[in-house]
Design brief:
Chain lengths: ~190, ~190
């Protein structure tokens, strides 16, 4: 997705240790129009899968997942990291180590909103080690719903997260793939 | 906003202590199409204010704020509750007691994305006691930006948050106003 690549070239900051700062349009300040383009592109690639729900993780996944859900005409469910008092006690729960927070995070989804009838498209901002997406996959499996696809806005292929996803037999789409961030570089695939 | 009122009537659950569960379309599962209607309605009411940024708080504010920002053609900034490693140390920071979490939460915004040139429209999911919105207002004041308006999706007028906002001299808009949640009721204004 050329417009996204261009934006990363212009505004992305390589903070070292594989951390890409894209706080000016994705992770803190959000470019709503770019998110809409992202949602439409994701829907174009994933529309054939018959998804009934988009699933993401708070916080940074919400914006691109919401726009994807809008473009597909389905709801989005975001896994919570802290249990609000409105969530039932028997939540679907999995944990994942967080890359940017440096600790283990819990992801919780109410079984009210993920059922065996659902066909689930997982959308997240980054595919890096795949830890967060794998926790979301385990939540889908717990719920009895069917996983139909996985989409990431930015993939860091050098962190190897894709390998574990390829056995699932569902499409894995990234809008931009970064192959190398060593020595301050930000190199894109193709 | 009649479509929203209808949705609360059908799916909202009064959990007591003034807590309204709207997890099926706003706070955990999100109805992307309803969010777009909400964003457009907010933009219709607030479009004249010349806002350059929408400001909200993670997590539940993000969806309606993103759609409002999209409809206005401006970016949205969401205040973070935990400091990611991508945020500079000198963040704009205020704290607020959280109604649904039962503890004090910090709200942090990077000064990169809120500057004295900005005209800020604050959007949040609820206007209840006003604690979160007041913390966002203090962040705007810290940044030197100009506050131009405040919008909430659902106002619980019986919690009195509006009073503190009326002295600010900016429009305060709620798409739906709930006047009474005692004894299991959910009563709307007018």
């Amino acid at each position: 997705m050329e417009v996204l690549k261009e934006r990363i070239r212009r505004e992305g900051v390589n903070l070292g240790h594989g951390i890409l700062k894209v706080d000016s349009f994705l992770n803190h300040q959000v470019d709503a129009w770019l998110m809409m383009l992202i949602g439409k592109e994701m829907a174009r690639r994933m529309g054939r899968l018959g998804a009934t729900k988009v699933l993401t993780a708070e916080i940074s996944g919400i914006a691109p997942a919401l726009m994807t859900a809008w473009a597909l005409g389905i709801p989005v469910v975001y896994a919570r990291k802290t249990k609000p008092i409105t969530m039932p006690d028997h939540a679907l729960c999995e944990s994942a180590p967080s890359h940017t927070k440096g600790q283990q995070v819990e992801l919780m989804v109410s079984p009210e909103f993920l059922t065996p009838d659902d066909r689930v498209l997982i959308i997240d901002d980054f595919l890096a080690t795949g830890n967060t997406i794998n926790a979301l996959i385990r939540i889908v499996q717990q719920s009895g719903a069917t996983l139909v696809g996985i989409g990431a806005i930015i993939e860091k292929s050098f962190e190897g997260g894709r390998a574990a996803l390829e056995d699932l037999g569902v499409p894995v789409e990234s809008l931009v793939v970064i192959t190398d961030m060593s020595n301050g570089r930000i190199e894109f695939a193709d």
